[in-house]
Amino acid sequence: MFTSLAGKTVIVTGASKGIGRGMARRFGEAGLNVLVVSRNLEEAEKVAAEIGANASAFAADVSVPGDCSAMAACAVERYGSIDVLCANAGIFPAAKLGAMTAADFDHVIGTNLKGTFLSVSAVLPEMKARKKGRIVLTSSITGPITGYPGWSHYGASKAGQLGFMRTAAIELAPWNITVNAVMPGNIHTEGMDGMGPDYIASMEASIPMKRLGSVADIANTALFFASEEAAYITGQTMVIDGGQVLPESLMALQEMDVA
Ligand code: NAP
What we know:
Blueprint: E1 9-13, H1 18-29, E2 33-38, H2 41-51, E3 55-59, H3 65-79, E4 84-87, H4 102-112, H5 114-130, E5 133-138, H6 152-172, E6 177-184, H7 190-193, H8 197-205, H9 215-226, E7 237-240, H10 250-256
Parallel strand pairs: 1-2, 1-4, 2-3, 4-5, 5-6, 6-7
Helix pairs in contact: 1-2, 1-9, 3-5, 4-6
The chain binds NADP nicotinamide-adenine-dinucleotide phosphate.
């Protein structure tokens, strides 16, 4: 149905685990060359090995400008181009206001928001030179649409990514570079496992589809944004959340249980 992306190159940041790993695997299945990026080289190498000969690993911290430039240079050196960037790396440590320090805030913004800016900036020279590119940001429903105690810094970083995206999409349109964002709800990942069974059970109960999403649910949307068929879509978002943001109240969820 979609034009093949085989032979193109994607960089996926935060690809050693979770959503990023799911994206790297999905793009690898679609025949792209995949640069699997995370701070931990050994973990990234495991994911590259799962994908196969069309994937390789690179260690970079997206909050460090030099690491992001080296990541882009590595993709060009190994594969000859950068067609797609999935700026996915992110952290979500919880801290409520009053306990949250300036360092906590800087760490989350530095990784999630500044890391997005740095990753995007690093791939632009190559994409602009070829007058073509696809950038997919991993935002969230948390921040742009919803809130959750402990995540004011995280929510600000995820909403900030969308503000960044809208201006970036305008600035980069003349080079035929699109910038779009996936907005996952609660997705089953290693990071999510760390939230504990009570959190996961309460989330499942509040989702109309009564389950967490899978990394494949997010990866498929990222692949669509990267496709030729999405060439005229830029500055847009896709919520992938099993309907989580829809219920007006607890009653709305209870009512749906009536046969
Ligand atoms: P995860 O399982 O904790 O994986 C996070 C990935 O990011 C790992 O590969 C980690 O590897 C990497 N990473 C963290 N800090 C990094 C840095 N400074 N530089 C480079 N890589 C870094 O998280 P996830 O749940 O898959 O989340 C991935 C993205 O989805 C995040 O942006 C998150 O905000 C977003 N999201 C997740 C959910 C969800 O339900 N899971 C929902 C909405 C949005 P290293 O530690 O080796 O660097």
